[in-house]
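Consider the following input, taken from an annotated entry for ECF RNA polymerase sigma factor SigJ (Capillimicrobium parvum).
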Amino acid sequence: MTVSTVEELRPLSFAVAYRMLGSVAEAEDVVQEALLRLHSTDAVANDEAFVTTVTTRLAIDVLRSARVRRETYVGDWLPEPLVEDAMVGRVEDEETISLAFLVLLERLTPEERAVLVLRDAFDYRFADIAGIVGKSEANCRQILSRARRRIGDERPRFDPDPAQRSALAARFLDAARDGDLDGLVALLAPDAVLVGDGGGKARSIPKPMAGGAQVARALAAFYRAGVDMGITLEPVLVNGQPGFRSRGPDGRLVNVVGLDVEDGRIRRVHSILNPDKLHHLGPLSDLALRPSLK
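Applying the prediction step yields:
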């Protein structure tokens, strides 16, 4: 097994592991172990199938061990974000990498999550999925049906035109920078939801806030205060969808915000402040941290 072959499979392994776990750090650990096993195993018939199988099984084990931690998590749990520069990155035209979709997957058991990810994100055949998760094809079909029912009608449906989503996000960013309450209300859906994830370590709303007008007032207040502290907002892609990141006066990262655009309005705002979920994105500011952690 050559090093180049192993490295060529790294993106696939990470794509599976991240969708399974919603954690960059945990996904990278799983990828490293899966590729190490490939490199050290002789006579592998199909490298891609081997890596996908090992990655999925390792991720299932991690989910089982992480369930207690997530059940006791302080506040709302959001995934560790994948961030790309809005000017050079590309908007994913699929929903399975979005923050909203990964949050929904938290409702599923590890096996349900694996079957749904392999089928809906990667279009694996049921025969292949059965071999990966160690179930019969009929059982995998039942698991998929049950998983889809558990997600139900809440599965996100993003506007299909990436350019329109990005333009709407740009107007939202301008309104946020200006503290423009009326502008924010006009861009948010009437039933818009704001979710903050501070993990008990950063200042964040304790529970989701619902209602476009209420969310707009909160955001206008947040960003007016941010301007006073010298915080700047930069457009980025967050898990393939429009968003922005906040930086302190010293250039260090404060938080990452992802926006879900549906029917020409912003329906969900995900604000990730927990420093444990942002370390992979560079140096972090302490502006959002709770006083006891400074």
